[in-house]
UniProtKB/TrEMBL annotation:
<dbReference type="GO" id="GO:0010181">
    <property type="term" value="F:FMN binding"/>
</dbReference>
<protein>
    <recommendedName>
        <fullName>Flavodoxin-like domain-containing protein</fullName>
    </recommendedName>
</protein>
<dbReference type="InterPro" id="IPR029039">
    <property type="entry name" value="Flavoprotein-like_sf"/>
</dbReference>
<dbReference type="GO" id="GO:0050660">
    <property type="term" value="F:flavin adenine dinucleotide binding"/>
</dbReference>
<dbReference type="InterPro" id="IPR008254">
    <property type="entry name" value="Flavodoxin/NO_synth"/>
</dbReference>
<dbReference type="GO" id="GO:0005829">
    <property type="term" value="C:cytosol"/>
</dbReference>
<dbReference type="GO" id="GO:0009086">
    <property type="term" value="P:methionine biosynthetic process"/>
</dbReference>
<dbReference type="GO" id="GO:0030586">
    <property type="term" value="F:[methionine synthase] reductase (NADPH) activity"/>
</dbReference>
<dbReference type="GO" id="GO:0050667">
    <property type="term" value="P:homocysteine metabolic process"/>
</dbReference>
<dbReference type="InterPro" id="IPR001094">
    <property type="entry name" value="Flavdoxin-like"/>
</dbReference>
<dbReference type="Pfam" id="PF00258">
    <property type="entry name" value="Flavodoxin_1"/>
</dbReference>
<keyword id="KW-0285">Flavoprotein</keyword>
<feature type="domain" description="Flavodoxin-like">
    <location>
        <begin position="1"/>
        <end position="133"/>
    </location>
</feature>
Amino acid sequence: ILFGSQTGTCLEIARNLAAEAVEKGFNATCASLNELGFAALSAARTPVLIVISSSTGDGDPPDNAAAFFVAMRRKPPAGAPPPPPAPLAGVQYTVLGLGDSNYTRFMYVPRSIKGRLAELGAKEFYGCVEADE
């Protein structure tokens, strides 16, 4: 269970969800998006991925998700060999986005994460949810 949290709400939800999963016999861990890092996502390491994130300011990633977000959006350098067509095939995910619809870029970070995971071949196992303040 990965989180991007500026004020602590996503962190609290992620910790509670991880604790509940462990109580039910699942092997669950909780970390910030930056702690794991985008490059570490794979079917072997993260076969089931739950992301809980907010946007901060007007669509910026939380501090503990900024490096992940930048790496996730980075395109391969010109001349680099093309990546495999679906590098995240075998990863199942869902995203819970927290936000405030008073901002122009409401849910920008959670929606970007969801979209990029799908582009890279991951499959949604549970419908992604957005919660407005």
